[in-house]
Design goal:
Elements lengths: L5 E5 L20 E2 L2 E2 H11 L4 E6 L4 H6 L4 H9 L3 H11 L3 E6 L6 H6 L2 H4 L4 E4 L3 E4 L4 H12 L2 E7 L9 E7 L5 E9 L10 E9 L3 H7 L10 H12 L1 E5 L3 E4 L3 H14 L4 H12 L5
Parallel strand pairs: 1-4, 1-6, 4-5, 8-12
Antiparallel strand pairs: 2-3, 6-11, 7-13, 8-11, 9-10, 9-11, 10-12
Helix pairs in contact: 3-4, 8-9, 10-11
The structure holds uridine 5'-triphosphate.
Length: 293
Amino acid sequence: MQAIRKAVIPVAGLGTRFLPATKAIPKEMLTIVDRPTIQYIVEEVVASGIEEVILITSEGKSAIENHFDYDFQLDTVLKEKNKVELSEELTNISNLIDIVSVRQKKPLGLGHAIWMARNVIGNEPFLVLLGDDLVMSDVPCCKQMIDLYKDVGESIVAVQRVPMNETYQYGIVEGEAIEKERTFKVNRMVEKPAPGTSNSDMAIIGRYLLMPEVFDLLGKTTPGHGGEIQLTDALLALSNLRGMYAYEFEGKRYDAGDKLGYLKAIVDFSLQHSTLGEPFRKHLESICNGCGI
Ligand code: UTP
């Protein structure tokens, strides 16, 4: 079985749901407590044992590449001012992992963004993490998926249960439970189903472990929902070709590309922060009158 060594992180979307904040700043660079969203995602990849990240970027997203680069001028100034800890922290970020960037010249959809990584990935299974999807968990979500892959040896999509009246907002998976805990064999997938057209509440979140055959399938996929090349269409074809599993990961997922999801992430990640957590909890308690946070 081939090891999972590479992770694709598409960050080339327009971020229209978060305008005007995202007019000049990539949504992946919006801050959750003290780090941009994208740093949490790259840290999850690193903690899962991945060796290389492929960022799918676009015009206006260079701040993301710069964030993970080494800034010689800034580092020199920090050292001159004897700000040793800050200098070390920034150097550590630039040393986190090897990053390759590929440009998606037009925002033709998530499926197209992933297809752009085909030459860098080659013929091996790989991970995909959406650049605005955060998961808070004890074991990194990608690590959970890699562990499952070692047993099932096929593609895996991470899923979460959502209320039935919200399924139309997600890619929905239908499948049947197998012997392994939290794991389902995928039978059908449908992108944003109209009410009443699917009885499943398993929604795909922004973590995928995919077999390289997906690239050929993406190359043949015609524009679907919203005129974009949808990843879900190619995933359905891949599940018919080789089989696929849905995995109900352990943890909590936040859509940080959505204003409300972003606010929830800030509150929950702040409460977990090593130094800010306690004073922030006190503040919340003071404004919500002993609501038991
Ligand atoms: P989203 O569905 O969040 O789309 O994409 P978006 O365009 O970024 O944001 P909204 O909906 O306009 O607010 C999910 C992920 O796929 C990437 C995005 O950057 C995000 O990480 N993506 C999407 C691309 O890289 N290219 C695309 O053409 C579309």
